[in-house]
UniProtKB/TrEMBL annotation:
Lineage: Bacteria, Pseudomonadati, Planctomycetota, Planctomycetia, Gemmatales
SUPFAM superfamilies: Homeodomain-like (SSF46689), P-loop containing nucleoside triphosphate hydrolases (SSF52540)
Pfam families: AAA_lid_14 (PF25601), Sigma54_activat (PF00158)
CDD domains: AAA
Protein name: Sigma 54-interacting transcriptional regulator
Sequence ranges assigned to domain Sigma-54 factor interaction in this UniProt record: 4-233
PROSITE patterns, sorted: SIGMA54_INTERACT_1, SIGMA54_INTERACT_2, SIGMA54_INTERACT_3, SIGMA54_INTERACT_4
UniProt organism field: Gemmata palustris
PANTHER family per UniProt: DNA-BINDING TRANSCRIPTIONAL ACTIVATOR HYFR-RELATED, TRANSCRIPTIONAL REGULATORY PROTEIN
Length: 324
């Protein structure tokens, strides 16, 4: 874990910014869509800082129920609230001397935002149920997939906290905005999973790579990682990489995504190729849809999914086609 892979200018710029800010003790705000590598970059900031030998503590603010978040951040004393059976240290105390990575910082509820601001400014706080002020030395790296500026404008995020976090913003572009990274990432994950599963993959077919480069990756690098893991599992040992392309070419999320960014991946091309893929599969099966020999099985789709795709694309059985 830890290597940031990619050859694009966009990623190069991100890494350059990381190299500049890491040795300072400044707060860093990492933005980018889900799966773009925000945590990976946060860890890189820690690794390249003077705190590298101290602890890196992570907290996903969106994953903790609001009522528990305060205690997760600042800790509590025994008896501070019902269920607080013993003293517990919060993440700020655990990260003392090191780095605290707050993921999904945009999800911090308004009532906690002043407390977070205070610990950022003064490096001091109290555990829940205690009047004793504690001092810490923590470097904060925060991340969000939301537009914090918009949340500020909507009155959902305090502007003073926003400016405090926004001292050094690092934006990681979506993978479809840096397609040059795809081949290197594919080779990286093939090597990783081939080693993990004890398999040898000799070749990645060029047409597979082209399809992967053209796909819009709504789930970004995480989606690519999972697809390659599945592909390595599916590939014969010593053979070529067998990517279940139908999974991605036919995915609704991909098509929805292209709707929003026509300049990046022409919708017509992908839809046309999907339509053509389905038509060929149907022709090949004599327009049988369900069953083990049907087009749905061949395409790796549920029968109902295929039927709804056909309807959407106006694909109907030609008059002279063989009978089901
Ligand atoms: N440039 C990269 N090189 C190698 N691996 C990467 C790269 N970017 C992301 N990954 C991998 O992709 C996966 C998702 O990355 P990560 O968890 O850092 O994304 P994230 O932006 O923090 O996601 P989320 O917003 O959902 O928390 C991880 O397994 C990570 O190691």
């Amino acid at each position: 874990m830890g290597e940031v892979v990619g050859a694009s200018l966009a990623l190069h710029e991100v890494l350059q910014q990381v190299g500049v800010v890491a040795p300072t003790d400044s707060a860093v705000l990492i933005t980018g869509e889900t799966g773009t590598g925000k945590e990976l970059v946060a860890r890189a900031v820690h690794r390249l800082s003077a705190r590298r030998d101290r602890t890196f503590v992570k907290l996903n603010c969106a994953a903790i129920p609001t009522g528990l978040l305060e205690s997760e951040l600042f800790g509590h004393e025994k008896g501070a609230f019902t269920g607080a059976v013993e003293r517990r240290l919060g993440r700020f105390e655990l990260a003392d001397g090191g780095t605290l990575f707050l993921d999904e910082v945009g999800d911090i509820p308004p009532e906690l935002q002043p407390k977070l601001l205070r610990v950022l400014q003064e490096q001091e706080f109290e555990r829940l149920g205690s009047a004793k002020t504690l001092k810490v030395n923590v470097r904060l790296v925060a991340a969000t997939h939301r537009n914090l500026g918009k949340l500020v404008a909507e009155g959902k995020f305090r502007s003073d906290l926003y400016y405090r976090l926004h001292v050094f913003p690092v934006h990681i572009p979506a993978l479809r905005e840096r397609r040059e990274d795809v081949p290197e990432l594919v080779r990286h994950f093939v090597a990783l999973f081939a080693q993990r599963f004890g398999k040898k993959i000799e070749r990645i077919p060029p047409e597979t790579m082209t399809a992967l480069e053209r796909y819009p990756w709504p789930g970004n690098v995480r989606e690519l990682e999972h697809l390659i893991e599945r592909a390595v599992i599916l590939s014969a040992p010593g053979g070529e990489l067998r990517v279940p392309l139908n999974d991605i070419i036919l995915s609704d999320s991909a098509i929805d995504h292209i709707d929003m960014s026509p300049a990046l991946a022409p919708r017509a091309t992908l839809l046309e190729s999907e339509r053509e893929l389905i038509r060929r599969a149907l022709d090949g099966c004599g327009w049988i849809i369900g069953g083990p020999n049907g087009a749905a099985t061949q395409l790796g789709l549920k029968r109902t999914t295929l039927l709804s795709r056909m309807k959407k694309m106006g694909l109907t059985r030609p008059k002279r086609a063989s009978v089901e």
